[in-house]
Design brief:
Blueprint (H helix, E strand, L loop, with lengths): L37 H12 L10 H15 L14 H12 L5 E4 L6 H7 L4 E4 L3 E2 L4 E2 L2 H12 L10 H14 L2 E5 L2 E6 L3 E4 L5 H14 L8 E5 L10 H13 L3 E5 L3 H12 L12 E6 L6 E6 L9 H17 L3
Parallel strand pairs: 1-2, 8-9
Antiparallel strand pairs: 3-4, 5-6, 6-7, 10-11
Helix pairs in contact: 3-4, 6-7, 6-8
Length: 338
């Protein structure tokens, strides 16, 4: 699109949008009424002039066009192997629903949203779980309290029938070793059972233990399985530093089980545990793809930028290491009275 002033009559052109009664103005469909840019028209003419239409491959410049657009607009670099050709947004949504969920599961969406999101979920035998965005009169915000309630619904699911997989048993074993106990549910309440000491209501545990307990129950109920995406914000919160390494091992076991994990952290030990796994093949025999992402603010423009690397040492902006180095320098100045 390039000319936003030229009017083109689309009546009687088999337009789904403009096949309406006289004096009726359609405003419901995402169909632009501006002529396509000449460069695109020329490319289409060149292809049609070839006069043969067979099975085609997707050329590299198709992906490069996307990469360049995201680089220019958002300073975000996409690797080619992150992308896949699809025929449209709607088929892509339906494919994602089928890939990462199973029939009968809930899919969380945030309304108001494109109505096709609902159809892509329902038509594939899944259930819609809607968390409505809150409008404050100016803009929409995520209602995190309602999202916590939606998570609680997942915790209320009955346990899966049948034996666990070997990967699930490994994760559960790691978690129970960390917590030195088991999670049980009685009368819609969760308890932490320690051998020889009894049962404790979940509300009496620290926030860190409650998070681990949720992981255990979501695995047992089938909510956390292969192709699930897990976002874990600061897993080090309220955790004894000695528990950091076992927690990282749990996340590694989940990743080996097929769970894709996004971790946000400000903790040196979490960062370095993952960095060692990424750096030493003997610690990563299944060759998990671990990436380190750093967000930082441009000092001149104040825009938020990012960088992504396969090793912590390759990050040029790392607040954890910057503060670690600053503390070391302060200590050296004290020692040497500088």
């Amino acid at each position: 699109m390039y000319d936003f002033s030229k009017m083109t009559n689309r009546f009687n052109t088999n337009s789904y949008k403009w096949d309406v009664k006289e004096n009726e103005l359609p405003m419901w469909v995402a169909d632009m009424d501006f002529e396509t840019a000449p460069a695109i028209i020329d490319a289409l003419h060149n292809r049609v002039d070839h006069k043969i239409f067979g099975y085609n491959t997707v050329p590299d410049d198709y992906f490069e066009a996307y990469q360049n657009w995201w680089e220019r607009r958002h300073h975000f670099h996409m690797e080619k192997d992150w992308m896949m050709f699809v025929t449209g947004v709607v088929p892509a949504i339906s494919s994602v629903v089928r890939k990462v969920t199973t029939v009968g599961e809930n899919v969380l969406i945030m309304s108001p949203v494109y109505n096709i999101f609902y159809n892509s979920i329902l038509n594939n035998g899944r259930h819609v779980l809607s968390s409505d965005l809150v409008f404050d009169g100016k803009e929409y915000h995520i209602d995190f309290e309602e999202m916590y309630y939606d998570l609680a619904k997942l915790l209320d699911r009955p346990l899966s029938k049948g034996p666990n997989t070997a990967e699930q048993n490994q994760v559960l074993s790691n978690l129970e070793d960390i917590m030195k106990g088991q999670i049980i549910q009685k009368n819609k309440k969760f308890y932490f059972k320690i051998k020889g000491e009894g049962e404790f209501e979940m509300g009496l545990l620290s926030d860190g233990y409650r998070k681990l307990s949720m992981l255990i129950y979501m695995i047992l109920s089938g909510s956390l399985n292969k192709n699930t995406i897990l976002f874990w914000d600061e897993p080090e919160t309220n955790m004894n530093p000695k528990m950091i390494r076992p927690i990282v091992q749990v996340m590694v076991a989940l990743a080996q089980m097929g769970v894709q994990i996004f971790v946000s952290t400000h903790d040196y030990f979490i960062q370095q545990e993952f960095n060692m796994i990424a750096s030493y093949p003997k610690l990563n025999p299944k060759n998990l793809d671990i990436r380190f992402i750093s967000l930082y603010r441009d000092k001149k423009t104040h825009d938020i930028h990012y960088e992504i690397e396969k090793s912590v040492s390759d990050l040029k902006h790392n607040a954890i290491m910057e503060e670690f180095d600053a503390m070391y320098d302060r200590e050296q100045r004290i020692i040497y009275d500088d």
